[in-house]
Amino acid sequence: MFGYTFKYMQLWQIFNSESALTYEALLKRFHLQLDIYYQPSFLAADAFMHGGTYEIFVCYDQSSIFIYPYIKKEFENNYYDITSPYGYCGPYSNNAAFFDIGEKAFLDYVVTQGKMVSEFIRYHPIYNVGNGMKFKQNISNIKNRTVVMLNTSCEWQEIWDHSFSNTNRNLVRKMKKEGLFCEIVDYNSYIHQFIEMYYQTMRNANAKEYYYFKDDYLNKLKHQLGDNLLLAVVRDAQHLYAAGLFFLSGNILTYFLSARNLLFTKVPATNLLLTSMSEWANMRGVSYINFGGGLTDSENDSLFQFKSNFSKVRYPFYIGKRIHKPDIYEMLKEKWISENGSVKYEELKNTLQFYHK
After folding, report:
1. What pTM was estimated for this model as a whole?
2. Residue 53 and residue 18 in contact, taking contact as beta carbons nearer than 8 Å
3. pLDDT digits over 251-279, tens only?
């Protein structure tokens, strides 16, 4: 689907799985290498996980472009909601002034279609930094938490001396002295061990069911992403201590999932994992590592404090909520409450699209 915004002479198009190659050609035309969340391969896997389909709204002229990927979930009477894929995938533009034009074109498209009920956005901490690069029309943008980023484009010794905490440096030295090392391994050879350790790690942390990623989804990710999904492990000659999955795209390495061997809880193997992957990224010219944030926005969040051992650089992570059809949204809310009760609604009401739970 495509059209023109005649007032400004921009072309807009909707890309999906059937037009992924055309979208990728457009990225090349604009010399764009974007984060993994903007790639059709990742979007296809995420849509599979969420039981939806992906679309990418693109508005562009000769020199400027606006890109907005999302997952589309349809329900009764052809109505649908959209949400950013899991991770960080807000609208992208190579031109701050063009960003607003792109938003207007998208909203015009929404009105023309007339079937979108609500929209949930997970903004990108780099691409959407600053208010000028976030949606502005009829939307609530909320700071959700703080993410830790590491600039890996400088010299490794500078990173080692000034980005890592003293605690982390000492732990890494000790583990290396004891014979532990980190390496990127063949996915198929280690993924079953990773999944087993990951589920144990999640159970130990009393994690919500949402974080129990199924092995069919992880295998779909690998099939779609290929070499852009990396599996790294920490081990010695006898044991496997920790493992992690990382995305690589657009000069950004993203820390996705990790797991520990609970038989060795006193071995701080994840410190060696993240330090070694930081060095790997630095050696290959990667610009940033996105370690993500904590489970909350608190400075005292234990996961956030752990990730802070690897960088002093912080970026705010925002989410956005927008309702396009308040009457339909209210109807969906009341129907859900009648079926599930007001107590359950009170638990979920801050989740925009709670009725999909």
Report:
1. 0.94
2. no
3. 999 999 999 999 999 999 999 999 999 99
